[in-house]
Amino acid sequence: FDLQAAGINLNLAQLAVQQAQAALDRATIYAPFDGVVAQSNLVEGEVPSNAQPALLLVDNGELYVDLAAT
Predict the structure, then answer these.
(1) Terminal-residue alpha carbon distance, the chain
(2) By the 8 A CB rule, do 30 and 54 touch?
(3) What is the pTM of this model?
(4) Cβ atoms < 10 Å from Cβ of 42
(5) Which SS3 state, helix, strand or coil, does residue 22 take?
(6) Residue 1's pLDDT is what?
(7) pLDDT digits (tens, 9 = 90+) for 6-21
C-alpha cells in the first residue's frame, strides 16, 4: 500500500512540475532583439493591458552619437 501511495504522490508531483513549467513559459517575455529594459510599466502581480506597453526595450546593438565639438 505504501508503495502504491508513493507512486501516486510521484505522479501528482510530476504533474505539478509540468503545470508550473507551463505557467512559467506563458509568463516569460522574449524580445525580438538583444537589448535592455529601459522602462517597466508593470507592477508585480498586475495584469498587462492593451492600452499601455508593458516594457520599453532599447536595442543596444548599434548606438549612434552625434556630438558637436567647440
Answers:
(1) 86
(2) no
(3) 0.48
(4) 14
(5) helix
(6) 66
(7) 999 999 999 999 999 9
